[in-house]
Design brief:
With 390 residues, the chain is an alpha+beta fold. It folds into 4 domains: 2-61, no CATH class; 65-165, 2-Layer Sandwich (Tetrahydropterin Synthase, Chain A), CATH 3.30.479.30; 181-247; 248-348, no CATH class. It is built from 8 helices and 12 strands. The protein has helices spanning 2-20, 95-100, 105-122, 126-131, 133-147, 167-247, 249-268, 282-299, and strands at residues 21-24, 28-34, 37-42, 45-48, 54-61, 65-75, 81-92, 153-164, 275-277, 346-348, 384-385, 388-389. A 3-stranded antiparallel beta sheet has the order 3-2-5. A hairpin with a 5-residue loop joins β6 (65-75) and β7 (81-92). α6 crosses α7 and α7 (249-268) packs across α8.
């Protein structure tokens, strides 16, 4: 009997000890109530309470928690209905307040968030609601954090997950967006064309300016070239005048004869000239050329250009330079009477002989063999040479 009593007492002692030892997990805080009144809190770890007197009241989770805000329909300022939902991040900072100041913390937070969402979005228009989520989040965070401070709760973040207008409003917004995109495209195209026209006009303007500058520079250079040419002509004329003043009329006559010979040579060497008719005053031409050569023999200087038609090696012309084995004559100035007038050359186009050709000559005739034996050909008309009209 005594043994049973001892065993009963031992079991009671063990149960009492176990009831007085409490182990609190990490992230939680327990409240202790003595006869139904709050006395203190138990921190995470091993704790002791008075058995049969102290009891565990509330087990408060002090970790950061997430609460979903149910979806609800909210009317905006411009009478547009949108569906809104979100989430709340909060943490219990004072466990006794969260345990005894509010009956159901999560329900209270959810209801408070839903009412404040309707209040905040109801003051905004639809476009601002869709584009200002950050503003809505910050306003809700300020309101909820201030409202939950007596509960010992810290609201760290509020996020709006969805703001969805009705289907008909979405179609209208799509049409509006399409029209706005088209308007922007037209404006952008017009701006591009305007910029292109401006750039093109600037390019044409620059081209005109550069062309005008080029013409101005060319005109200046042309004027300078004409000025230099005029200076050269004046210098040449002055030198000729000085030579004429120093050497008398002989140098001037030589200059004129040389120019005449050069002109006659250019006319005779022209590619479109087939016939050059020497004027009747050819003897005067030869005399002028001879006098020019005689003048240069006297002065000892060679002529500046060709000496006329007789400059070749054919007969009838006088050789250039002093005659061999002869003393140069004494220089003298020619008188005006000795210089014959210099006629201008006459250039004519070749004439075509229209006289019918004679029949072939008989053997033994003067025309046989293609060589004239003398006399005038039988088919030669009066005033016409053997090679056409002279």
């Amino acid at each position: 009997m005594f043994t049973y009593v001892f065993l009963g007492i031992l079991v009671l002692v063990i149960l009492t000890f176990l009831m007085g030892v409490k182990t609190v997990p990490q992230g939680y805080i327990w409240t202790v109530e003595r006869f139904g009144a709050y006395t203190h809190m138990l921190q995470p770890g091993l704790n002791f309470v008075v058995p049969y007197i102290d009891q565990i009241g509330k087990k408060i989770n002090v970790q950061e928690q997430v609460v979903d805000i149910p979806e609800q329909s909210v009317i905006t300022r411009d009478n547009a209905s949108v569906a809104v939902d979100g989430i709340i991040y909060f943490r219990v900072m004072e466990a006794e307040k969260a345990a005894y100041q509010v009956a159901n913390l999560q329900v209270a937070l959810t209801t408070l968030a839903m009412t404040n969402i309707r209040a905040v979005i109801g003051e905004m228009e639809l476009d601002a609601t869709l584009s200002s989520r950050e503003r809505i989040n910050s306003q809700l965070l300020t309101i909820l954090d201030g409202a939950t401070e007596p509960w010992g709760v810290k609201v760290s973040r509020v996020e709006i997950r969805k703001i969805e207008p009705p289907e008909n409003l979405i179609r209208a917004m799509n049409l509006q967006m399409t029209a706005e995109r088209e308007r922007r495209a037209v404006v952008a195209r017009a701006d591009g064309e305007r910029e292109a026209q401006i750039k093109r006009a600037e390019g044409e303007k620059q081209a005109l300016v550069l062309a005008a500058e080029g013409r101005r520079i060319a005109a200046v250079q042309d004027a300078e070239a004409r000025e230099r040419l005029a200076e050269a002509e004046a210098t040449a004329t002055r030198m000729v005048s000085e030579a004429a003043a120093q050497s008398g009329d002989a140098a001037l006559r030589y200059f004129i004869a040389d120019r005449y010979v050069r002109a006659f040579q250019s006319v005779a060497s022209a590619p479109n000239t087939r016939l050059v008719v020497v004027p009747m005053e050819s003897s005067a031409l030869a005399g002028g050329i001879t006098q020019a050569l005689e003048l240069f023999r006297n002065t000892g200087e060679p002529p500046a250009g060709p000496s006329g038609p007789s400059a070749g090696g054919g007969g009838g012309g006088r050789p250039r330079g002093p005659l061999p084995h002869s003393e140069p004559p004494a220089p003298r100035a020619a008188t005006p009477a000795e210089i014959p007038p210099i006629p201008a050359p006459i250039v004519t186009t070749p004439l075509v002989d229209t006289t019918p050709m004679a029949p072939p000559a008989a053997p033994g005739s003067p025309r046989a063999g293609g060589v004239w034996s003398g006399g005038v050909p039988p088919t030669t008309a009066p005033g016409q040479g053997p090679w056409g009209r002279g």
